[in-house]
């Protein structure tokens, strides 16, 4: 997100505009003015941030933003500063708020950013490439112990209700089984894959479990131990990667995407094209009306689920 913040700021300054950064997302937008959550951003304020994960502006969940009166406070804060347009960087929840603000008359442009990569309107979202790489690095490290001790490692990855992150990590690490919300595997099916790996003389097995699946990884481990212990051969261990996946220095892919997304968001404002989400289609930066983005979840490519199975023999 930092590259996108930098790109929005400097592209807007280049046009001679005044730029404010809002700390902690919608929570900062609605905060009383004396809390100083909205601050001027000049070119140097966004210097030295492009290699940092997360966001220098901070982020917060803000359920109160669903309340129209609360949103009105946010709009009043912007009016007081003479702000003409808002760039909103985030995932589904954030863009849902952006769409409502847009319907209420604010000029808003969204930037597709979430490690879940579940947003309609963008093939890939900002942050997911870094999250995949961080998770892969963790799995590579877990494989060392799994292999030495002849264990099956159950690794839970994030992604909310979307299996994209789990699928990409599972495919890229050659997981013996991948459990996704969109492609559930019963404990018996997972046990069969683990057993198969054991019988073929593999030293370990990796099972990737996306957090939105029917069973979390710890529950899957429990059922495997309770009901399939004899057949699986390997000892089991579960690791939940959790927020580690949201850390780490952004990959080159994410930095380049952040630069292009941020600059395009400013272009959109300049052209009066608002109420849209900036995303990627193929190699092109595109815009999609926010109304078409919110309320849905992007499907995963089911052919990759089959590919992962074929390649994991
Ligand atoms: O949407 C990004 C995400 O990291 C999801 O993958 C995960 O389910 C959620 O946020 C975790 O939210 P929190 O940090 O509020 O626990």
Question: Can you give a write-up of this model?
Answer:
- It is a single chain.
- The chain has 313 residues and is of the alpha/beta class.
- The protein has two domains: 2-127 and 250-293, Rossmann fold (3-Layer(aba) Sandwich); 129-247, Phosphofructokinase domain (Rossmann fold).
- 44% of the residues lie in helices and 17% in strands.
- The chain is built from eleven helices and ten strands.
- It has helices at 2-14, 25-30, 68-81, 92-103, 128-148, 164-173, 187-199, 217-232, 252-271, 290-293, 302-311, and strands at residues 20-22, 38-40, 85-90, 107-112, 151-157, 177-179, 205-210, 235-240, 276-281, 284-289.
- α7 (187-199) links the parallel β6 (177-179) and β7.
- The protein is elongated.
- The model has no long low-confidence stretch (mean pLDDT 97).
- 6-O-phosphono-beta-D-fructofuranose binds next to loops.
- Residues 61, 91, 114-116, 158-160, 211, 246 line the site of 6-O-phosphono-beta-D-fructofuranose (F6P).
């Amino acid at each position: 997100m930092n590259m996108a913040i930098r790109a929005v700021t400097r592209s807007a300054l280049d046009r001679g505009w005044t730029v404010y950064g809002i700390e902690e997302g919608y929570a900062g937008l609605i905060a009383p003015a004396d809390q100083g959550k909205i601050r001027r951003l000049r070119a140097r304020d966004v210097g030295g941030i492009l290699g940092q994960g997360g966001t220098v502006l901070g982020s917060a969940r803000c359920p109160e933003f669903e309340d129209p009166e609360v949103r009105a406070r946010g709009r009043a804060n912007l009016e007081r500063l003479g702000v003409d347009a808002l760039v909103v960087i985030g995932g589904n929840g954030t863009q849902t708020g952006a769409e409502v603000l847009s319907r209420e008359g604010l000029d808003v442009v969204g930037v597709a950013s979430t490690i879940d990569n579940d947003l309609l309107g963008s093939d890939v979202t900002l942050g997911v490439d870094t999250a995949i790489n961080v998770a892969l690095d963790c799995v590579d490290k877990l494989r060392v112990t799994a292999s030495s001790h002849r264990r099956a490692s159950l690794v839970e990855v994030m992604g909310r209700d979307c299996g994209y992150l789990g699928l990409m990590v599972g495919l890229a690490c050659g997981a013996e089984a991948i459990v996704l919300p969109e492609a559930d595997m019963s404990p018996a099916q997972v046990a069969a894959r683990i057993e198969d790996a054991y019988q073929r003389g593999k030293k370990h097995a990796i099972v990737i479990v996306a957090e939105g699946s029917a069973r979390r990884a710890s529950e899957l481990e429990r059922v495997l131990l309770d009901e399939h212990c004899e057949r699986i051969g390997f000892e089991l261990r579960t690791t939940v990667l959790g927020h580690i996946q949201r850390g780490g220095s952004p990959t080159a892919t994410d930095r380049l995407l952040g630069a292009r997304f941020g600059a395009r968001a400013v272009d959109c404002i300049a052209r009066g094209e608002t109420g849209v989400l900036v995303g990627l289609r193929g190699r092109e930066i595109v815009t999609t009306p926010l109304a078409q983005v919110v309320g849905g979840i992007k499907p995963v490519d089911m052919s990759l689920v089959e590919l992962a199975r074929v390649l994991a023999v």
